[in-house]
């Protein structure tokens, strides 16, 4: 069993302007994604939407032992992370297939594999 992060980037401003029917279509697509994952033996560990990127708080080292805290996301871009799924999967290829079908229904998806314990030094973490 391996763990994967399904990130859902989207253009927040564009999404907010969509009519209710499009939001309902999106909800049905997410429900289908849940059914497809379950049918393939994949399990959702946790999932959820995120607050708007304008409400993010970003922190970065200030170079003198402290941290600079700013309102807003790290990067200004057309697309922002609006939600995610953390999925346990027995079959990565099948998970890619299911995510591809989900994307074909209108979702932008970035699939990332989680590094197994002990395989990665987290860089600046101490």
From TrEMBL:
Belongs to the YciI family. This is YCII-related domain-containing protein. It comes from Phycicoccus avicenniae. It comes from the Bacteria. Residues 15-99 form the YCII-related domain. It holds the Pfam family YCII.
